[in-house]
Specification:
alpha/beta, transferase activity, transferring alkyl or aryl (other than methyl) groups, 2 domains, Rossmann fold, 9 helices, pyridoxal phosphate, four-stranded parallel sheet
Length: about 325
């Protein structure tokens, strides 16, 4: 049977499904008539998070310019989502990938990584901050030093991280919005996604203010280190990509507030989201009462919730987080 090539829309791999995520009005969660909250649903990327964009852009840009070759061994430290995104990219392009995690990684993420063919290295010694990031990075450096052809992706310092969101998430939002946003809210860890989005959006909407959503216990903005059990938000080191002059305000959200945000989003909008998304919801809820009216907020929702059933959506964990964060 002849194929009409004018209407053929089959694509070559799941990586080509990354991006073009919808922007959705949150009218049920934020019903105020003088407030518009628009969510960019990055959780609808095929790997479940906005990290799909960074992984695809980093790997495919490297393959194009030769810094990544067919025999390259990719190595990265990740709490889960970026590791999964890199594992997908590595699988599609036939690359070896080792992901270094720590005991706070949710079991579902570890299982997904292994099923995708990633080699999983688990560190178990906390660093001087009480977290594991520095320990993970040391292990990454050991692997790279002892493995010919290995490279460290280093999402905390890799300019292709923020560029993925400049050319992807931010550019899409600039075309999806029919008017200027007043505020952009986004979770931070490497800070790449927020900076990439804001740099692109400010080209079209220079008056837009940028609000970073960070975790209580994260040191990115100079706060003291502390216990953080929700993965994907915050960091125990300051990323090399960090550019504080481009961020107008920071809102710190604790684990319990993030979990409440997830549950309220699910109850009102039917969106099953992960912890960093819940933190963004909580930050918008806290900040809205003092914002000028009328107000238009764009909130980036980074990840989905199916990997957090034993964490945020578990009632025992939820009650323990409530008690810990109220002390």
């Amino acid at each position: 049977m002849a194929v009409d090539t004018q209407t053929e829309s089959v694509i070559g791999s799941v990586l080509e499904c990354v991006g073009n995520t919808p922007a959705v009005a949150m009218n049920r969660l934020f019903p105020q008539s003088d407030v518009e909250v628009i969510a960019k649903l990055e959780l609808m990327n095929p790997g479940g998070s906005m990290k799909d964009r960074s992984a695809r852009h980093i790997v495919e840009s490297g393959l194009r310019n030769g810094s990544i070759q067919r025999g390259t061994h990719l190595v990265e430290s990740s709490s889960g989502n970026f590791g999964i995104a890199l594992a997908i990219a590595a699988r599609i392009h036939g690359l070896r990938f080792t992901c270094v995690l720590d005991p706070k990684a949710v079991p579902a993420n570890v299982a997904i990584l292994r099923h995708l063919g990633a080699e999983v290295e688990m560190v178990d010694q906390p660093d001087e901050t009480g977290g594991y990031l520095h320990t993970r990075i040391l292990r990454v450096q050991e692997i790279v030093a002892n493995s010919p052809g290995a490279i460290w992706i280093n999402q905390y310092a890799n300019d292709r991280n923020w560029q993925a969101h400049y050319y992807g998430t931010g550019d899409e939002l600039s075309r999806q919005l029919d008017g200027p946003p007043t505020y952009l809210f986004g979770a931070v860890s490497t800070t790449g996604s927020l900076l990439g989005c804001s740099r692109r959006l400010r080209e079209d909407f220079p008056e837009m203010r940028v609000v970073a959503v960070d975790a209580v216990g994260s040191v990115i903005f100079g706060g003291p280190p502390g216990q953080r059990d929700v993965p994907g938000i915050g960091a125990s080191r300051v990323p090399e990509l960090f550019s504080p002059g481009e961020i107008d305000e920071v809102v710190h959200v604790n684990d319990f507030e993030a979990a409440v945000g997830c549950r309220e989003l699910l109850a009102t909008e039917g969106i099953f989201a992960g912890g960093s998304t819940g933190a963004v919801v909580a930050a918008v809820q806290r900040t809205l009462p003092r914002l000028p009216r009328p107000c238009r907020v764009v909130a980036v929702f980074p990840d989905r919730g199916d990997r957090y059933l034993d964490l945020i959506y578990d009632d025992d964990w939820f009650d323990a987080a409530r008690q810990r964060c109220s002390n």
